[in-house]
Amino acid sequence: MRDAATATEPCAALAERDPVLADLISRHGCPNPFAWPEGDTIGGTDPFAALLLHITGQQISIAAALAIYGRVLALLDSAPTPERLLDLSPAALRGAGLSRAKVAAFHDLAERVVDGRLAFDRLAAGGDEAVLAELTAVRGIGPWSAQMFMLHELRRPDVLPAADIGLRKAAQALFALEAVPRPNELAELGRTWAPYRSYAAALLWSA
């Protein structure tokens, strides 16, 4: 993880080019874009487990996601692995609180890891666009989930999850927009924040 001293360079660059972000930095400092909102340890250190948590968290609150994920871990009775997950029936996973779509996504992810179609060491070494393409090939993983994985696990400095409703509402308020910007509009607004869009996203979330 970048430490506070290293993070000052991206925030200094953002403050120089965007007065709105400069004001946020003056009020909130330079937030860590790679930490989970509930603490930096909830995602764990295993990328497979982290992706399961990202899938679980789609379209529900963090509290609900953590509760469901905890029940999944209890079913596995140990750290999650693709093989153990595939041993669980869809009915058991549904009983833990997962939707049918998320159960299917869990199984597709596990199968891809087992047969080598998805390799985490390859993700760690790949460029942002390649990582995004590889992750979104997994059933149930869209751009938002892939980008959140790139932020929290791969810790990429230039990721803007433009579909995130929290970022879009923050942008509307901070930039005095008439309506909540569409994802493509937020992406366009954020072009000037490259190559530190992860830090800009953290600042908008802090607002």
Please, could you describe this protein's structure?
This protein is mainly alpha-helical and 207 residues long. The protein folds into two domains: 4-33 and 158-206, Endonuclease Iii, domain 2; 47-152, Endonuclease III, domain 1. Helices cover 62% and strands 0% of the residues. The protein has helices at residues 4-17, 19-28, 47-56, 62-76, 82-87, 90-95, 100-115, 120-125, 128-136, 143-152, 165-174, 183-189, 197-206. α1 runs antiparallel to α2 (19-28), α2 crosses α13 and α9 (128-136) crosses α10 (143-152). It is elongated, with a radius of gyration of 18 Å.
Gap between N and C termini:
22 Å
Helicity range: 55-70%
Q: Beta-sheet strand percentage?
A: under 5%
| CATH topology title of the largest domain | Endonuclease III, domain 1
Spell the H/E element sequence. Answer: HHHHHHHHHHHHH
Strand-pairing-aware structural class? mainly alpha
Determine the mean pLDDT. Answer: 90
Just name the CATH architecture of the largest domain: Orthogonal Bundle
The CATH C-level name of the largest domain is Mainly Alpha
Biggest β-sheet strands, sense, barrel: none
The number of domains is 2
Keywords:
mainly alpha, disordered N terminus, Endonuclease Iii, domain 2, 207 residues, Endonuclease III, domain 1
Summarize the structure.
The chain is mainly alpha-helical and 207 residues long.
Question: What order do the helices and strands come in, and which of them pair?
Answer:
Elements: H1 4-17, H2 19-28, H3 47-56, H4 62-76, H5 82-87, H6 90-95, H7 100-115, H8 120-125, H9 128-136, H10 143-152, H11 165-174, H12 183-189, H13 197-206
Helix pairs in contact: 1-2, 2-13, 3-7, 3-10, 9-10
